[in-house]
Amino acid sequence: MPPRLCLLPTVLATLGLGLLPAWGDEKTEIKTYTDPTEAGEDFEIQGEYAGEIRASRGPRKVGVQVIALGDGKFQAVLYEGGLPGDGWDRKTKRQGEGELKDGVALFKGDEGSGRIQDQVLTLSDSSGNTVGRLERIERESPTLGMEPPDGAVVLFDGSSADAFEGGRLTDEGLLMQGVTSKQKFGDCKLHLEFRTPFMPAARGQARGNSGCYLQGRYEVQILDSFGLEGKDNECGGIYSIRSPDQNMCLPPLAWQTYDIDYTAARYDEPGNKASNARMTVRHNGVTIHEQVELPHVTTAAPVAEGAEKGPLFLQDHGNPLRFRNIWLVELKE
Q1: Per residue, what are the HEC states of 208-264?
Q2: Tens digit of each residue's pLDDT (9 = 90 or more) over 288-316
Q3: What residues does 97 pair with on adjacent strands?
Q4: SS3 state of residue 12
Q5: Is there a contact between 51 and 114 (Cβ–Cβ < 8 Å)?
Q6: pTM for this structure?
Q7: What angle do CA 155, 34, 94 make, to 5 degrees?
């Protein structure tokens, strides 16, 4: 019989505090990275790990997301069945903490341990027997780099930011946050690619915050909420309206996609709203909202609710977000 399995949840549960603790000392310097080559050792350890572990009932697939918290501190979340969008049962997950020592991230508990070295997470039981090795992986959205179809309105292809009010480009030709499209739209299909910065010491809404506003009214949140609960104010959430079905946020500095089918609200001739706007959202290729009604605009929306068309607005919340490959297809109303 194989040694008694100590899943990473068991390893970490004895250490587990709340995921991404509340904002701490205001004097703490919040370092922000937009270039992976400058992000340091913590960045190399954080990320997604996947593989199998030996259990008494046979091999079991698991996934682990390791979140960098700054100063060599980490938090890990284990998902039974695999990573979100890749086998997770959407119910069973556990979390705990780890620390970097001499280039190795160590996770210890009363019944076992875990260690990350050379991009491999090794799990051991309380006797030191290895029960699993999970490889660090880098997932990509299946819609990353999707080309616009014939007739699409291309808002940004890397050549110019002229389609946006306030459009600014980085030296690498990426679109910066805080822009509003000059053209206005009604019903549409939107494709958007974005990248959150690496801000390991930041917490909550201060960690890579932006937003994608359809018609300048309804926000799909953009945030580094890698490994979090998946709430309406986290990445993929329809802000103040609905949480995503699951948190499909990838690690910071990974390119991610939103593919959104949007139906505008309808109004009668006197100007009364006859039906709410609706949207379906696919985050990194996985449907997280299906025809969700939008009963009200987002509080910070720059455009009031109404029958007229509206722009695409990419919010500036003080963090350096990057965007590319933005296009939409207008639909007949």
Answers
A1: CCEEEEECCCEEEEECCCCCCCCCCCCCCCECCCECCCCCCCCCCCCCEEEEEEEEC
A2: 999 999 999 999 999 999 999 999 999 99
A3: 75
A4: helix
A5: no
A6: 0.90
A7: 105
